[in-house]
Amino acid sequence: MSDAARETVLSVRDLSIDFLAGRTRKSIVRTLSFDIAQRETLAIVGESGSGKSVTALSLLGLLGPRATVSGEIDFLGRNLLPYDFHHLTKLRGNEVSIIFQEPMSALNPVYKVGQQLTDVIRNHTQLSVDQAREHAMELLRKVRLPTPKTKFAQYPFELSGGQLQRVMIAMAIACRPRLLIADEPTTALDVTVQAQILDLLRELQSEMGMSILFITHDFGVVADIADRVLVMRNGEKVESGTAVDLFTDPKEDYTRELLSAVPSLDRRVGNRAVQTGTDTVLQFRSVGVTFAGRRGDGIRALDGIDLSIHRGEVVALVGESGSGKSTVGNVAAGLVRIDGGQVVLDGTVRQGNGADASRHSPGVSMVFQDANASLNPRMRIGATLRAALKWARRSKPELETSDEYIKRIMAEVGLGADLFNRFPHELSGGQKQRVGIARALSVKPSLVVADEPTSALDVSVQKTVLDLFGKLQREHGFACIFITHDLSLASNISSRVVVMYRGRIVEQGPTRRILTAPSDPYTRALLDSIPQPDPVLQRARRTQPA
Amino acid sequence: MLSLGARVGPAIAQGAGGTLVFGLSANVGNLVYGPSRGAAQFIVNQQIHRGLVKFDENGTIVPALAESFEAVDPSNYRFTLRDGLSFHDGSPIDSATVKASLEYLADKSTGAAIYSALSTLASIETPDAKTVVVKLSKPNASFLDYMADPNAGIAPAAALAPGAANWIGAGPFKLQANDSGVGLTLVKADTYYDKDSVALEGVRFIFYPDSSARTNALLAGDVDMIDFVGWEDFERVEADSNLVLDAVPGPFVYTMFNVEKAPFDNPKVRQAIAHAINRDNVVAAAFYGHGEPLYGVPMSPGNGRFDPKMGDLWEYSPEKARALLKEAGVDGLKVSLLTSSTYSFFRDMALSMQADLKEVGIEAELDAPDWATYTASKNGGKYDLAVAGGAPSVTGPVYLQAYSIGGPASSFGSYGYDASEIVAHIQAGEAITDDAAARTEYMKAVEVIRDEVPFLPVAQRSQAFAYKNTVKGFKNVSGFLSITGTGYMIEKAKVE
Amino acid sequence: MELTTYSAKRLAIGLVMVVCVQVIIFLAVQVVPGDPVEAMMSETGNISPEIVAALREQFGLDQPLPVRLLEHMRELFMLDFGTSFQYSQPAAAIIGSRLLVSLELVVLSAFFGIAAGIFFGSWSVQTRIGNWLVSALGPIILSVPGYVAGSFFVLALSLWLGWLPAGGMAPISDPVEHLRRLVLPVLTLSLPIAATIAKVTRYSILEVRNQDWVRTSRAYGFSARRTFRRDILRNALTPVLTVSALELGGLIGATVLVERVFNLPGLGSLLVSAVSVRDYPLIQGAVFVISAFYIAINIAADIGYGFLDPRAARR
């Protein structure tokens, strides 16, 4: 792929970025240098705080007044530093385009998508409104947006995340840019959609000959799309090289560490023995849930769910967004009213349409995806944990609420006693999630519902949290519903996998069987979409006919 | 009605006397024949309408539509109309017109303000087109006062129905434009019998219901004259050398008692109150010092039927009040004192009295609802003590009758009081033509009032008009007539 | 939901609400103690109980309450509020002329207040002076009650300086004088609105400014000015609309005092005087108009959300 004779589109030398935080200057990126050639895709990989996104935004001068950027940014022979905003305005969206992580918030909610696209086109061209519309429609077809004519006149909130990212891409290629910056463009998307978007980007690149700077934390995605890779850590380059070299022969320890932390399907399947008690903790019998729409039309979130969880068992609930997997967890915890079937938890029956169709179940605790949002910012960690215990004591009077007990639980999840009096904002993401786990654990639950507990965490942190969770589960022996969109992750922790699609269970069985011999076509598609952190394997998969 | 611009119309030609721009203290809607709608409406009525007689600047009754009048005896009055009288629309006025108007006002279903004077109407004779003879079934020496009342104008037949608009009259000015809620534009009427002595070309009334807004309008030069100057604004007006403050002792404030129940069923207790109230304090608190304390019944200066002794019945003496209370055998009294929060002088008067009552060992609890609730409580006897305001429309001592007769029969009197003795003396006085002879009869009634205290006059408030010093010929009529008589002075004014 | 269906539904609910308010106010005002005739015949003249009875009969107050309520609702159906006791004129006509004054006052004050508020709010985000103006001057303006500010303006601008008349209404046929007389009342009413709206606009802009789509707008080469108008201000207006609707509702109440201070024949002062003498037809008519106005503002605001934020219309 690499061709030394190709023109260099972007050449960055000694890029340093400082941010003004209060009165002090904080160095975010230090003396970073890299090149991108024509038609080349460079992936910058790193964990949060590595400075990869800041680097991407600095190229277009999008960092705002608090940032100081120095060094050289040479784009097609023009040095962009120091910024000439008049010049940048002409460049942005024209010769250099950018797409973002959250397509839903990257588009203005109050304008129709067609209009936003047309506005961008007219901003850089002399086209009339009609011509620009015409061009916008062409672009929407090109990015394979389904029913483009209808979507053209719809608002962002009426489109799915994948569709919106297609619109963003259409916007990005509207003026045939030489360089496309993609800042984690698939992170917020489901894995099947991610595969399609990556395919689309590759296809557009080969057609239009643009270069891509791809920012991501996901080695699977890197393996799928990158020609060359640059690994960053704490604002500095760790190493760089071609994708194949990096994956097969990483030079630096940090790179190796990152690669080993990536959950991989093939390596870990079946690591966990299938250990199930016969004792049933939770049972769903044809459970149905309907969310009321405003005009009386309900959304069927769950439809005839039959599911049993045994004592000490970890069941992974896998599916895309909207599949109903979180609703299952909420029903188990008694947070959502069921309107059909029955739920049996620790021998207590909840009937659909009954007075107790939703009732908080004291035996269930939850660990949430967004650890930050699930902690009261004004409460110290110790107080947060004590509050949960006090609440649980109403149905479990035997629970301890002493500071010693709380500190013991904190030690168990790897939190020092010094954090007892800290506030959530003083903790890192991983620590906050440990608090979440401690809170779930402290009340001695028979069932823990873990709703994507690690998906907001960096890959290395994710691994340690996951390991901790597994260890605690084995020690305490609680049953667990582990909700995730990531089949690799499911394979690491669960003994059984339940695959959900549009409110139904399409397949369930022992983890090993589901991953190796799925019987349902949806499960297969899901497995195929997972990018593997191996560029050779990915390339091979891609060349196979779908 | 729906036009903002209906007020002025074409500008009024500036004549010798100019146009008087008058800031009026209340909104005047439609004029309706008969019922009273308050002081502002009186002033408008007096420009548009005219009765058989009117008051002059001294409060004396003088001819109006009647060229001459004669009290044959106190129950028999003869009026001779002027020649060539007509309404603003040119339709003539003769004795039949007058008869129709008076008979309408004598019908109680019309709600006429002067019904009480005409309730004893026996007959109206019209021997010829110019002569009207009114015969009453009972003598009434004050009958002519009622005939001069602002609500006693003669009206055309079209106005003689409840709710009918009554804008066409025989007065000095006629309506040119009615801008609802904003004002009225009047121009001099050439049908007026005395048009040659009217100097003004017109009067423009602008409604200023808010007292300080009204004063501000005068100070800013937006209007030439205002009525009912707020007491708190007297100094501001007086400080301006271009303005005249024309203040006279006007209506009075008094205290009512609920005599249906203890303790005010006992005349001794009422006498005690009569001695307990510090009138000077009331004048200072309620009227910013602009008023006169009353130690007897208020008297109209131009009327010869009053005896100066009537003004000297009680004194301010807490010792005497305490002695009277002791004599009555009451101790540690707790009473309710009804007033209204709508008018600050009502509230301030009650507050001042509250302090005086405490001085003599009576604890008065204030009840100060809004105006309508106040009237309902007052007329329904839901009080022990109440403050009230009086503005008699007649000048003679006969007015005492309405304030003596107890509620619910009279809304002005103390609830439950039987005033038959007072009424008998007053009626006897009314039957006597000679003022001096009548005075002794009235004095007997006043002596009963002194001992029984059916109501307790407290102070006579200053009633002020204020105007630019370019306004000449106007005079605020002293006494009760400041309300009912001063409106007749506008036609004598001119703006230089 | 379609905007038209949505509007029609809101309108129907609004009508029902107006009728409910009428029934409630009818009962409330007639149950409260106080008799219109006695209240009006308060201080002047010699009014005997028989005259009071005669006038009560004339006004139809001798009828039992249910009969009067039915009659009132029947009349209301034809937009007839009856005849004012105080003014002996059809209440509808009086209210009509007063309503125009109030509406003019409210509309002008709301327009200038909201426009100035949005302008100063936007300005405050961009410059230090603007920021100082909104954060320092705003609270001062808001802490001064309307009638105090109004009285101060009369004192300063008309009594001392003599620049403007002290109050009153001039006919629209004399537009210059008409507007001159509206300057002070509109100023008095719009200042606090401007202060509130400026503050809301400021905070709303500060919040929207950090949204991702603003970065997108800049990243696609839109000028700072265009980004501000298209992607910040427009989105920031939704809370401004909410507060504006509330302020507009509050304005009707605020006009009462301003109408008194500046002697404007508006609906507020009419209602206050009508209540004090229990002029039922006027009270009921005025409340009808005011409640209809309130509800209309709310409907307009809801429809406005639909335009400002398409998500609102579909919810």
Automatic annotation (TrEMBL), chain A:
Organism: Propylenella binzhouense
Membrane topology recorded in Swiss-Prot or TrEMBL: Peripheral membrane protein
A molecular function (GO) term: ATP hydrolysis activity
Presence of keyword Membrane: yes
All residue ranges annotated as the ABC transporter domain in the record: 12-259, 284-527
Family: Belongs to the ABC transporter superfamily.
NCBIfam families (UniProt xref): PRK10419.1, PRK11308.1
Annotated compartments: Cell inner membrane
A matching Pfam family: oligo_HPY
Source organism, top-level taxon: Bacteria
Protein name: ABC transporter ATP-binding protein
InterPro entries attached to this UniProt entry: AAA+_ATPase (IPR003593), ABC_Ni/Peptide_Import (IPR050388), ABC_transporter-like_ATP-bd (IPR003439), ABC_transporter-like_CS (IPR017871), Oligopep_ABC_C (IPR013563), P-loop_NTPase (IPR027417)
Keywords: ATP-binding, Cell inner membrane, Cell membrane, Membrane, Nucleotide-binding, Translocase, Transport
Matches recorded under CDD domains: ABC_NikE_OppD_transporters
The keyword Translocase belongs to this UniProt entry's keyword annotation: yes
GO CC, any one term: plasma membrane
Single biological process term from Gene Ontology: peptide transport
Automatic annotation (TrEMBL), chain C:
GO cellular component terms listed in the entry, alphabetical order: plasma membrane
PROSITE patterns: ABC_TM1
SUPFAM superfamilies in the record: MetI-like
Membrane-spanning residues: 12-32, 105-125, 137-162, 182-201, 236-262, 282-308
CDD domains, per the entry: TM_PBP2 (cd06261)
UniProt domain ABC transmembrane type-1: residue ranges: 95-301
Keyword rRNA-binding appears in the UniProt entry: no
Compartments, as annotated in UniProt: Cell membrane
Gene3D superfamilies per UniProt: MetI-like (1.10.3720.10)
Sequence similarity: Belongs to the binding-protein-dependent transport system permease family.
Protein name: ABC transporter permease
Organism per entry: Propylenella binzhouense
Lineage start: Bacteria, Pseudomonadati, Pseudomonadota, Alphaproteobacteria, Hyphomicrobiales
